[in-house]
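Q: Got a minute? One more chain.
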Amino acid sequence: AARGVSLLGVEDYDTVERIKLEMCYCALNFEEEIERSSFLHPEEPDFLPELGKLLTKERILAPEVLFNPSMMGFDLDLGIDTFIEKVGTGFGHPVLLIGKGFSISKVCDRIRKLFNDDLEIKLDAEGIGG
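A: Always. Here it is, folded:
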């Protein structure tokens, strides 16, 4: 709504999903990438051309919430990477990520990078969380 676009209704769900999966990507190094300007001029999506001009840093801010929930005002210092580190890596089994949010471009790559590529990740985008 801050940019004049409001996609809060149930009827907007499919549009929001397409934006998330087709336009957003996870920065492998968030601090470095937020300073760059390469994401400022994304290609315009055919499903909502006027939005392509409006989305700039939001393309990497949206997925960053998975790693830093406090960005959205949550009083929580437990991003997905911290959660995996605390509960998921001591069993010697792959980590199963469930939900479409993990299908955002480079999310799994970022998680692997944080664990020095030593973490096996399985993704179920259409599962319980999808």
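A: The chain is about 35% helix and 5% strand.
Q: Perfect, thanks.
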